[in-house]
Write a structure and sequence with these properties.
Low-confidence stretches: none
Order of helices and strands: EEEEEEEEEE
Distance between the termini: 6 Å
CATH class: Mainly Beta
Largest sheet: 4 strands, antiparallel
Strand order of the largest sheet: 1-10-4-7
Shape: globular
Helix content: under 10%
Strand content: 35-45%
Number of helices: 0
Number of strands: 10
Number of domains: 1
Structural class: mainly beta
Oligomer: single chain
Length: 94
């Protein structure tokens, strides 16, 4: 399995975890200790007040690994809201 990492920093916007289709069998998200607010993740419903909250200095949220060979997470379909200057770290593979 090949592992990849991404660091996402934005200025108070909702962004996809990837700008293009990116397949992964697992996704783990970790927030920076210095973040000023919760990072919110989810599907296309994510806003500055809606989403699954990941608090600052969160040790990690792992989406359940997918074992089916034909199924995967598409990182371009997972969105995150980050407050200005906040950071989200991702580890994913497949």
């Amino acid at each position: 399995m090949i592992l990849h990492s991404l660091t996402i920093t934005v200025t108070g916007n909702v962004v996809p975890l990837s700008a293009t289709r990116l397949a992964a069998k697992f996704v783990q998200a970790v927030t920076a200790a210095a973040n000023s607010a919760n990072v919110l993740i989810g599907g296309n419903e994510v806003t500055s007040s809606v989403g699954f909250p990941l608090p600052p200095n969160f040790a990690g949220q792992m989406l359940p690994p997918i074992s089916e060979i034909s199924e995967f997470y598409d990182l371009s379909l997972i969105n995150a809201y980050l407050a200005s200057g906040d950071v989200l770290y991702l580890l994913f593979g497949g």
